[in-house]
Amino acid sequence: MFNVTILKMRDIIKYLMGIILTISIVVIISKQLSKDNTNNTNEEKIVNEVKNGISMLSEQSFLGCFEQTVASMANLNEEYSKVAKEDDHSREDILQGVLETQISSIKGIGNLENETNNQDSKNLQDNTSENVESSNEAQEVTNQNAEVAEAGVKTEVITNNPITESYNVEYGKVKIKNETDYELTQEMLTPDITIENKNIILFHTHSCESYTSSEAYPYTPTGNYRTTDLNFTVTRVGTELETQLKQYNYNVVHNTDYHDYPAYNGSYTRSLKTVENILQTTPSDIIIDVHRDAIGSRSDYAPTVKIGDTDEAAQIMFVIGTNAGGLWHPNWNQNLKFAIKIQEKAEEMYPGLFKPIMLTKSRYNQHTGKFASIIEVGATGNTLEQCLTSMKYLAKVMNEVIK
To answer: Is residue 65 part of a domain?
Structure first.
């Protein structure tokens, strides 16, 4: 396991002031000594120069530097928290995932499994435009061939090699794993919300997260269950959810930009800018960041439910952030209520489709909307077709809640 150190604001101010004052003093003294090496007794002049130099450090300049430092640290904290939440699944998988994440930020996704395979990295660069084009073509096909989910069918969990689900809060049949220090009261859990703005925004902070290759969707991973070919990633899953929701006449904006390529670090910073840009033209309360459960390379873990006689669907998990990490986030309780409202209906229609909600200390850009969330669709062991099937049923549930 690893530790992420977060400096307090007062420590940052202290360190920055110390560095700035030290540099200023050294520069000014050096200039004075170079002008007059023989005038060693002119202490008063030097002191005055130092004071003048310090006064020139404007408050605006300092605050600008400080804000950039804090923003950078906050983004890193959210990146590492995304990986750290897998602690209950597998400590070994987390350590591997952290190491691979750091390598990817330096080498590129193509070198995650083999640092000497420079050709793979080159192929990722060369094929990015081609992959985006083919992904758009796949989206057009998907929009023409969507199957609407049925209601009133039997559902059962059929996960092989399951990971024990942990939770410490229940609201009816909805289970919540509360990783914060907040005590969740009945009032905080009751999903007494009214959804007025029904525009829906879908995007992907980790656009290149992919699944186990299958006969229906064969592909060669260019990293540890990652690829820039968006036909085989969570981006394709987002396209399916977009298609399904549009069949219920919702206005959906689905962004398919890369946010974790060519560098993984900074993904949340880039996706935040994307969402903010969309909101300028399409105001929305429902904002969903579609991910895959990031538990490393466990190919034997595929959380799955059987719905009806034939459909196998990957399980889904809400990840809801809070302000417990120190970042401004006035919407988190509304976000939680929205997740509970959706999952409550899902437990009624397709019990087992969702795993327990994960309530975390990190924000994950969810301050951007009243009903913002991360949904993690399946895990590395699931196939893409299982995840596409999940979106058919998720859209059905969402329509029952939002309409």
So the answer is: no
Rounded-to-integer distance, Cα 111 and Cα 222, Å: 8
Burial class (CB in 10 A: 0-12, 13-18, 19+), 340: buried
Q: Are 105 and 267 in contact (CB under 8 A)?
A: no
The model carries a pTM of 0.71
| Tokens 């962004």 found at | 255
Residue numbers of the domain that contains 291 = 111-402
Q: What's the CATH number where 176 sits?
A: 3.40.630.40
- Phi, psi (deg, nearest 5) at residue 318: -80, 135
Q: How many domains in the chain?
A: 1
Residue 357 in domain? yes
- How far, in Å, are 135, 293, 381 from residue 210 at the CA level? 14, 10, 10
Phi, psi of 328 (to 5 degrees): -60, 125
- Output DSSP code: residue 331: T
Interval 97-125: pLDDT, tens = 433 433 333 333 333 333 323 333 343 44
- Crossing angle between the packed helical segments 43-55 and 9-35, to the nearest 10 degrees: 140
- The CA distance from 205 to 364, in Å, is 9
Domain membership of residue 293 (yes or no) is yes
Q: Name 304's bridge partners.
A: 314
Q: Indicate whether 45 belongs to any domain.
A: no
At 372, phi and psi to the nearest 5?
-95, 150
Two tokens, residue 315: 């399980």
**Tens digit of pLDDT for each residue in 363-390?**
999 999 999 999 999 999 999 999 999 9
Q: DSSP secondary-structure letter at 165?
A: P
